[in-house]
Fold each of these.
Amino acid sequence: MKAFGKVHKYGDNVDTDVIIPARYLNSADPKELAAHCMEDIDKEFVNKVSDGDIMVANLNFGCGSSREHAPIAIKASGISCVIASTFARIFYRNAINIGLPILECDDAAKSIDAGDEVEIDFDTGVITNKTKNQTYQAQPFPEFMKGIINAGGLLNSLKK
């Protein structure tokens, strides 16, 4: 399983209220959530993002509330993976549960810049910055997590 895309870069402590503002939580429709993804931190995100793009952030990505709306909004926007130095624990699990691949890799998070083109090999955990010709090693997913992500989320994986 691989991903390739252009990077959208953010800093530390990107909380779930910034990922999807609370004023839009009256909808569970992924497309509606995606239409407002990141708008309080990056008003142009929805106009810039393309299917397959990659989000990169620093420390404590996804902190705040435990709502699943945040990873759903990111995934529905077209982001194929989020790379961060660290993730809030509940966001990490929610992301896996809805089938959004996320990788912790401090070196990659610090070195990759907005606009860089990045390739990810989820089987090996290798992140390659094609723009800078640099590679980083993240922890590859265990087999059970790969199964959940490949199925598009936990509920889908239970149907198989």
Note: The radius of gyration is 14 Å.
Amino acid sequence: MNNKGLDAKHYKGLVLDLLALGAQPRQKINDLLLSKLPASIDGSLRRKEYIKNLLQEMARDQQIENVGGATRAAKWQLKK
């Protein structure tokens, strides 16, 4: 289980639960997911890239939106 991890649907659910509390900065999302990602995604840069791709996919699916700026100023919230 540590090597395979959970499917993206599970991680998206965790993000949606967090964002239900209100808009959150990317660091909070990183803190939530980094320790839960599988061992097969090695290195902090690859893990952060995975989270970035997950957020982008959720934004394309109209689930969430960025209401802040780019990079460190990014704040994500549920799409209204």
Note: The chain has one domain: 8-78.
Amino acid sequence: MLQTAEDIRLLNEKINHSAGFVTRINDELSKVIVGQHGMIERLLIGLLSNGHVLLEGVPGLAKTLSIKSLAQAIHANFSRIQFTPDLLPADVVGTMIYNQAKNEFMVRKGPIFSNFILADEINRAPAKVQSALLEAMQERQVTIGDTTFKLDEPFLVLATQNPIEQEGTYPLPEAQVDRFMLKVVIDYPSKTEEQLIVRQNTLGLTTPIIFPVASTSEILTAKELVRQVYMDEKVENYILDIVFATRYPDKYNLPKLKPLISFGGSPRASINLALAAKAYAYLNKRGYVIPEDVRSICKDVLRHRIGLTYEAEAENVNVEMIINEILRVVNVP
């Protein structure tokens, strides 16, 4: 839909008025989390564009703390599910239980019935449990017995997985990983940040309280505005070129990548890259998407959607290198 300069100006004003809660959330989270601005930004992008987020990083990088704090900063319900090898699907979605007094079966809802779901160490649970969670993520509904329940909005699954400990884990199949909008790889804090973390945790100070500073209605209004953010056809084509280059690299002057990629991004990659770019523009209080928005969020959308061949692994080529090469070669509008 073609928008005039006046439409975009009015949208900019709406976004400036609406996006005040983002600053309030960031201020609240900074009370307990040092650094990790990229991770928090990605969590907000997932929240605003209705996409689930997979966080990967070694233990102790504040993954769980960030997600829990974000839920506290928004006036919303929060559930934490610790995934273990003996977990059952009923432990996640709920089950039917027999009520002796009433002589009937009743529904007992599981922890999935919340606004924010922290799926801790998702790769520790067997396939049945993972698929039960991922079905709820995709359909945004749960069936228990004969009854189907719609899940409340906003509904956001934030899953963590540990990349270093593979014993006793069940890696997520590619088709299931593809349902996550973003895969965020979290790195260690800088030396200055870690010094601050050490001070905060050794001075015996009381843990700061996170207050709810945003309502679910503000989030739902923001989600509507994110959808309205203007994306020019040139930027749309740029997104398609990036995704198509992962499938047919030889057509984009990248013949050396062809033997390294076993499969490229699915149509979900194109959809999610467009939505994430719009959310990124919203966070920067803009009513239109620029190519830099696409480039900024590209790795998080694509890194779990590109398959590597044995040849790539033999040559120590990782997905990040492939995405960097594609971004270097594909023409920027």
Note: The radius of gyration is 21 Å.
Amino acid sequence: MNSQFKKGIIELCVLKELLLEDKYGYAVIDSISEHINVNDNTIYPILRRLTKDGYFETYLVESNQGAARKYYKTTKKGFEYYFKLRDEWDQFIGGVYQILNKEGKNEDEIYRRFKERTK
């Protein structure tokens, strides 16, 4: 998958993860990685950039297991940005599904044509 495309989708997922509750970075990674293959090298740069751009604020919470954790909190600007990206995603994915499902899935016909052209 194109890395720029994937970054944009993961950015939307990071925003979504922080809409309902504040989380620290590893909790965001853990939650997203249940569904998409991501790691800290993917998520932390997104968190830093979105914070720098004013979509998140951070605060520290003491931890019983070592250093204090940096929590991310969505700002008003972050909520607005999420809704904008979500609308764009919904329109995009809706168009993709219309193309892919045009005239039904036709998988049998697609496979027949594939076999015909790869003889």
Note: The chain has five helices and three strands.
